[in-house]
Amino acid sequence: MSPPSFQRPPEVPPEITFISLPTTLAQFHHLPIHVPVWIHRQEEVKEKGYNFQEGVRVMEALLEEAPGIPGAYLYQLFIRKWPKLMDINPYFQSGRVAEAIPKLVEILEIDPECPLTCFQLGYCFRVTGELEKSESFYKQSLRMAPEAGWIYSNLARTYRVMGERSKAVEAFWKALELMPGDHFVLEQLMEMGELFAIPHKSGKEGEAAVAFVKRADYEKKMREILEKEKDPAGLVKLAWKALQDRLFEPACEAFEKALGQRPDLKEALLGLGTAHLEAGRLREAERFLTEFLEDNPESAAGHLNLFKVFLAQEEMDLAWEEIQTAVRLDPGRLDALRQLYFLFRQTDRREEGLSFLDQLASDHPQSYAALLVKAQALCEESKWPEAQDSLEQALSRAPGQEEVLLVYTSELGKRGKREELIGLLNSQTGPLPLSLVINLALAYSQTDRIEKGKEALERFLERPGLNPLDEERARGLLRELEK
User: Fold this and answer.
1) Which of 96, 110, 142, 193 sits between 20 and 30 A of 301, alpha carbons compared?
2) For the CA atoms of 359, 362, 366, 371, what is the dihedral angle to 10 degrees?
3) Domain 401-483, what fold?
4) 16-147: what fold?
5) CA 22, CA 36: separation in Å to the nearest integer?
6) Backbone phi, psi, residue 416, to 5°
7) Which DSSP string corresponds to 75-95?
8) 201-240: per-residue pLDDT in tens?
9) Pick from 103, 130, 135: nearest CA to 119
10) Does domain 224-330 have CATH number 1.25.40.10?
11) Which fold is adopted by the domain 344-398?
């Protein structure tokens, strides 16, 4: 939507002119479409974007000379609230989110119709676990800035934490409608099994490396492929792929077809039990997993999935037995260790859980897994120094390990320690995987070194033989940084 025409009021000082903000951005900050800038900075602002911090000073100068100018009331509100918004940033950067809430409420008292403040309150309440308040403030923000796609994507994140999957999907789709190609929203929809990426190499520079298709279209295509596959082993491979993509019914059908052709193909039994588990059919899952484990008692995956079945059925004694067996069989398996610590925590045995992880780390000095899970548990309890020590130990055992570095950099980012994050990633030898390249690029952009962030992504894109989906993700973030 193009902004309405604007005529410069005669009382405006000659050193000040006006530019037009995108409507959504103006609404989000509760400003008029037309905002003042120094006339000698006009072209630079048009090229690089509006600087709200500088805008406060221009508004102050404008109101001194022309206090009755159209939009004066919104300028006055903005001048009053902006310094307070800036004062809150250190709380976000250091992870002291709860302390920011009363200060944001003060800002809302100045400007009750400020979408930005409501948006930040929505974020704070999501972090502190007050999810209904988070939803309420995001909805308030949307009422005042209904075209801001980033509000929808954050509301969707709150819905995901609430377990409201259908509402989350709806909000993410709305966000994508308003922000076509947004890489975060695309990834969320892919993770939820609502969107799928198909490699699509056109050979033309700058064109998308993948094509995105909706769930219904992808499921139809997958069923066609499964129908054509005749080899039982090939069917099992495709069924695991369908299960990974959350296509539970096609996966079940393919595993059953493979078993019908080859009853001795025990991997299909494991797959069938897992597919029923994911689909919420617990009795069927228990039956197939138990049958699989009778012939494969050393399968950590089988015991882990049977643990999930018993946990969902609240058969706690059986759940304990299965998860401990899974960890004994594979002490380096992160998902099993995380589930075991979760069970300790749910039964108010945190300290016992931490002691168990310490013992496991001692018994297996080459494995990093117990140290990583311990670090995550300590972060949950806001014991960062101890968590950092555990992460350092994990890295010493597994230098450059992606999962450890992801957790480490994520925690540094939450605490505003971006220089430490950058130093950690730059100290790694060898090429970083995309997940860490993204963390590095974002850390650079958040410390006003966008060019360095772009360079990190551009170097990644120069690598030969990139996975098409990784290539598209990197290009998507690069496009956002170039804005």
Assistant:
1) 193
2) 50
3) 1.25.40
4) 1.25.40
5) 14
6) 70, 15
7) HHHHHHHHHHHHHHHHHHHTT
8) 554 555 556 788 899 999 999 999 999 999 999 999 999 9
9) 135
10) yes
11) 1.25.40
